Amino acid sequence: MSLQGNALVAQSGGPSAVINNSICGVIETWLDSGRQGKIYAGISGIKGVLNGDIVDLAAQRREDVAGLRYTPGAGIFSCRYKVSAVDHEKLISILKKLNIRYFFYNGGNDSMDTAYKTWRAAADAGWEMRVIGVPKTIDNDLPFCDHSPGFGSAAKYIAATVRETGIDLESVSTKNKVTILEAMGRDAGWLTAASALSRRFPDEAPHLIYLPEVPFYKESFLSDVERVYKQLGYCYVVVSEGISDENGEYCFTSGAVDAFGHVQLSGVGIALKDMVEREIGIRARCNTLGTAQRAAMHFASKTDADEAYMAGKTAVEYALAGKSGVMVTLQRASDDPYRCVCSEVELDKVANIEQKLPVEWINEQHNYVTDEFIRYARPLIEGEVAIPMKHGLPNYVRLDFSKGRVSID
Amino acid sequence: MSLQGNALVAQSGGPSAVINNSICGVIETWLDSGRQGKIYAGISGIKGVLNGDIVDLAAQRREDVAGLRYTPGAGIFSCRYKVSAVDHEKLISILKKLNIRYFFYNGGNDSMDTAYKTWRAAADAGWEMRVIGVPKTIDNDLPFCDHSPGFGSAAKYIAATVRETGIDLESVSTKNKVTILEAMGRDAGWLTAASALSRRFPDEAPHLIYLPEVPFYKESFLSDVERVYKQLGYCYVVVSEGISDENGEYCFTSGAVDAFGHVQLSGVGIALKDMVEREIGIRARCNTLGTAQRAAMHFASKTDADEAYMAGKTAVEYALAGKSGVMVTLQRASDDPYRCVCSEVELDKVANIEQKLPVEWINEQHNYVTDEFIRYARPLIEGEVAIPMKHGLPNYVRLDFSKGRVSID
Questions:
Q1: ipTM over cut 0.90
Q2: N or C: lower Cβ tally within 10 Å for chain A?
């Protein structure tokens, strides 16, 4: 099983609050394994590797690496880039030059596609290299996982924000009587659904939740809002950015398309706010948290952060044990007490498949989630991450990539 | 100086994360003063008082009252309502019936106008009643104050969010290269400016800040963004919801007007995002935190929370000492170490006046703030409030207003 050589780690896709926990898990586990091989980082994902933008992580201070455990964003930078056949040739040549025998790729569905293709390309080129995917997505849509690292923190932040802005709404509903919160998650409603964790009393926010898994009907939405408003005097709605009509078409798009062919969404919250004001005639407000949902480390879930680290650590352990072509998964070993362990799934099974919120966890009226979802999600948001503060703000680390740069030629 | 009778406290205007600290300060100081008089709450501000929606706060559990120190929203509910001459007659009759001799009103500029008019109406009616205003506004625009309770917490939350989403932007700028964050504060740029507290390194977010105190020029904005983008590959902009043109007209309004005649703003962030995409041709994103800015108790400033409590406590002390017709103010006694004390100002001086960000604290290019502003604002965001957690979320209190209801007739 022993394979001598170096390791490379890279991140891709949108960050989560805890994505760097996984990177930290990879780096620390590699460095502490006592192996001779170096560990490199591809700066800005596979695109950085292709550009030769690679650093030897031994040049970083260990305390800065440790600081990745409480630092949001992609600590070694990320990209959104679809690798082509021409790229693969160049990629393999770079990996050979640096004697990369262990390749760790941290990201979501698209990134696992990249990892899978890199693994295949290496095999086709006769280059022995172990490839392990490390899962990440606030969208919680990676298949074969009980849940994805990154989801718990985004869920905790959105639930806290809905609780706080819900209390705000009910305490001063004389002006804007409806609050619409737009949640990330284009095709999977997990994060939108997580807002339900906020509610302790029947009249507390959120009152209505609209998910991409079931068709959105304008008429049902308006009558739902009107009913809650008549009952309480205010109404709090959480809506997924990716709600779709009965034909599966997004209700609101900007027309643009990204590198992976995904349609760019835009302005669901604002559109619904305008609709409520125009059609019901009551004043509404829209909160669009945007990237704060995937970056709010100041209120991340400790459970999530620890599991993200565990996923990175396990990736190295799997690779050193001879595994390859797999993504680490999280499996729920026990519900009460909650306990989570790692397992694995073949990269080609996971690539480009989205795991949606089960329709059984959506109520009959298609405007809320069931208690079963709450039981599933609640343990994932437990605990808070201790963060060093300076001048009243989280003092996040920043690695110095002017150090340890490698030369390919 | 001794005046026997009961007290009434009420809140009005938009809440801050720490507004309930002031209410708690009023209630606890009154209850602990050993006076015979009751302390009532007007539920939903002056409008609730007029509707006879009044409760005896002795009916609440003391631990719930204490819990107001970590609970956002308006704990005794709020309103936006301009009191008329007819209302005043009814108001005085209700205050007489309940033998209200101490009247505490917690809010911003408009609320101090209400407090002043209530004071005058009582005097005109020959009803001896001491009226004290307790300041509150995340906008930080109350005059005669070094700063307003509520500002520090909103400033801390927005600065943390800009730091986190800024790190997110710089770590994955391949897709959306410009982030626009829209900040509250219609005519005063304090909160927008506070985002600058986030920046530790010259290339860190925010890169550009646009304030309502100076005219906004579309051409300057676009060339600023393009310059930063060319230099760094990304650009983070924070903009006030109330930016105005050279004639002092809001750049973006919805056309609607509120009870106090204020024009309703809408969609500055989205408008600028669209402008960047259309005119510069680079993809942008907009984060609109909305009411989260004034409700995010989970990351409130301890300094701010303690000062809000002190303002409420001082209001009762002032009233018991015979003062009336004044608002409590916060004055900076010392910069290093930072120390803040209470003082007072006549209600008629403060009502309806907005204290704007000094133009000297805005840079020459009108696209950032000076270090002097940073020195001013930094102490206000120090410290965090300990909040009891349950199931991974802040377990905020909710007073029970079915208890202690009074009958007016």
A1: yes
A2: C
